[in-house]
Amino acid sequence: MRHVRRRRRLPREVVDVLGDDPELMRLAEHVARLAEAPTQALAGRQRRLLVLAAAALGAALVGVVVVVLFTGASAPGLSDRALAAIGGDPVLHAVVAQTVSDDRTVDLASGKETPVQLTIEAWLDEETGRLHIVQRRNGGLINDTLGTTQSITRNATPRLDPALALFLTGYRHALRQGRVRDAGTAVVSGHRIRWLILVSGRPAGERVAVDSHTFLPAVIQEPDGTRWTVTRIESIPAAPADFRAPRLPSPALSAGRVTAQQASSPRQIAYALGVPQLWLGRSNGALKLIAVRLQRLTSLFPPTAHHAPIRSVGASLTYRNKTGTMLELREARRALPAYSFAGGLTFAFDPIPPHGAMQLTSIGGEWIGQLRAHRLYITITAPDPASVIQAARSLQPISR
Predict the structure, then answer these.
(1) Cis bond leading into 38, ω under 30°?
(2) Whether the Cβ atoms of residue 218 and residue 188 lie closer than 8 Å to each other
(3) How far apart are CA 137 and CA 349, in angstroms?
(4) Contacts 24+ apart (CB under 8 A), 142-148
(5) Of 99, 136, 85, nearest to 228 (Cα)?
(6) Which of 330, 313, 328 is nearest to 273 (CA)?
(7) How many CB atoms lie within 10 A of CB 244?
(8) CA nearest to 391, candidates 267, 256, 289
(9) In degrees rounded to 5, what are phi and psi of residue 210?
(10) 361: part of which helix (H) or strand (E)?
(11) Global pTM?
(12) DSSP for 27-57, written as a single string
């Protein structure tokens, strides 16, 4: 009876590299069998095999052969280790964070600036496709959405970044399917990591940095270089509390405009607003007051809210220096879209800061500072951040 040699099962990483060439596959299987040979016989045969491999395949294949020889085909691959680190429960729970550039909170007394931290927490039930996303900026809730992977990644407001959605909804699936590629080691924030590339994801080229010791993801790098820090990731049993429908918020103002305006005086505006208006005086350093306007404002709700528009008043004060640089103050009794507030948040979707602090954001060639003071919601616009901060510190009430 003819003996049929049993094929040696190779690690997935080796098959990915050599699978298209039968000759190389047979050579790799032979090397794997040698790894199970007695130690004394192994030394001489191993040496001859490595010489043959180097001559036939070059240095790259020798590296593959050495991996097979010394790790053994039964050793778990990187994908397996990364998958095991997360666990096998049905719900993936992850928290990722990112420091937002050109968006900061300024303490007006001390001048200390704190970068805005955007945090996204997700619960994904892979069996049902349910996805719960909670987004926070500086700890303040800005969005809470419950739906499916498709509805949230396509229709959520604010829209979920496609590369981040790929990680939250596809990372564990990619590990199971072997749809990752080892891109080598590096040091990130003082930790040794291995870069994994999600080879079948969209957008293509997203990288995940896996800690070399725990095999848990530590950093997500998007194709454009944007990075997210993974602060927590785990698999947990399905629990109704994690997929409870978010409480519906009151309809928020979604749009606004200035419908009319007229030249006015600081004292008249103080009467119109019903509280003392804040200004920089008729002059402030190199800045001179050149225009004071009382404005009629219309604020709109989303069409689905079936809510009538709100009409109110606001004030605009414009300053200019000798070089023509402009600075504008806009003030109202409410956080209105016409003055760059968005749904009860700031222009950049940050929570409105407490008294004594200002939210400072860059947009295009301008800087916008937003704050609350003396029962007014104030927006300051200038070409540079220093001018905005100085103006916020110099605000003083106008006597009625």
Answers:
(1) no
(2) yes
(3) 8
(4) 142/345, 142/349, 142/350, 142/351, 144/246, 144/247, 145/246, 146/243, 146/244, 146/245, 146/246
(5) 99
(6) 313
(7) 10
(8) 289
(9) -105, 130
(10) strand 357-363
(11) 0.69
(12) HHHHHHHHTTS-HHHHHHHHHHHHHHHHHHH
pLDDT at residue 54, rounded to an integer: 41
What are the residue ranges of helices labelled H in 240-368? 266-273
Helix axes 39-57, 59-71, angle to 10 degrees: 160
* Three-state secondary structure of 174-232: HHHHCCEEEEEEEEECCEEEEEEEECCCCCCCCEEEEECCCCCEEEEECCCCCEEEEEE
What is residue 154's three-state secondary structure?
A: helix
pLDDT one-digit tens code per residue, 217-248? 999 988 888 889 999 999 999 999 999 888 76
- A 10 A CB-CB count for 114 gives 11
Query: How buried is residue 288: exposed, middle or buried, by Cβ count under 10 Å (0-12/13-18/19+)?
Result: middle
Q: How far is CA 369 from the centre of its chain?
A: 23
Are the C-beta atoms of 235 and 125 separated by less than 8 Å? Answer: no
* Vertex 384 angle, CA 380 and 386, to 5°: 80
| Structure tokens belonging to residue 347 | 């222009």
Q: Are 126 and 176 in contact (CB under 8 A)?
A: no
Q: CA 291, CA 289: separation in Å to the nearest integer?
A: 6
Residues 6 or more apart from 148 whose CB is under 8 A from it? 129, 130, 131
In this predicted model, what pLDDT tens digit does every residue of 298-328 receive, in sequence order?
A: 988 888 777 888 899 999 999 999 999 999 9
- Residues 304 and 394: their CA atoms lie apart, in Å, by 42
